[in-house]
Amino acid sequence: MTAAVFDNRACQLGEGPLWHPQCQQVFWLDILGKRLMTRDARGARHWQFDRHVSAAGWIDRDTLLVATEIDLIRFDLTTGTQQRLCPLEADNRVTRSNDGRADPWGGFWIGTMGKQAEPQAGAIYRYYRGKPRLMVDKITIPNAICFSPDRSFMHFADSMRRTVWRQALDPVDGWPVGDPSVFLQHGADGPIPDGAVIDAAGVFWCAEWGSARVRGYAPDGGVVGEVALPASQPSCPAFGGTGLRDLYVTSAQMGLSAEALNSEPLAGQTFVMAGLEQGQAEHQVIL
Fold this sequence. Notes:
The chain has 287 residues and is mainly β. It has one domain: TolB, C-terminal domain (Neuraminidase, 6 Propeller), CATH 2.120.10. It contains one helix and 24 strands. Strands 1-24-23-22 form a four-stranded antiparallel sheet, with no helix packed on it. Strands 2-3-4-5 form a four-stranded antiparallel sheet, with no helix packed on it. A four-stranded antiparallel sheet has the order 6-7-8-9, with no helix packed on it.
């Protein structure tokens, strides 16, 4: 299976695709370009920020929660106004936000990392009922935050360690239960897990940085599917479209030489693979 171009605007570091179920359109972010992007019946649009933005969740039809390098904000899509919900390592100039996703209880999980991928400079937080709480510390590149369809567990990864963990969650309020266990450990020469999402059947679809693919893993860790991309650095997938059967995938130009960009003209663009397995609807953020 090979994905096609959905949007040809190149991102320096595309991330965080989000299918908004009320707007029926996909939003995504260019972290280094500091912009929130979308494409709808009116064509391609974007909103420019003065700081890095990396992930989003939907609050209602007109507003998103957006994770920036210093805070979580409520962002109005119609007016462009911002309301700070809480700071996010605002006193730490080393870090910025990275991968994030809403959970089934209305919370929002968000990772931070060093802007130069400083070892163990990052963390993962859960914003829930108006307050952020530290979930994981001393992580280098947090990624692959996603939730099982039965709400029993979530995944997260440290891309630098090429490892994905599974964390059990309390069914009442979604807090972690016990210690995480290793789900995928690729080893020093294995794939680099980036963003990920779990479909309705429980398959873990992970963008693998540097591998030009999104790979599907069964709950036991076995490979059950693969989507090829015309870009070597896919960063994050999201299900959307009719019946939630289209897989949108962001990618990046970051780190590619001029020679590599010449040989990879679609790097940084956003792709779609239509007619895949049915995904889960993105959960609403409840403030």
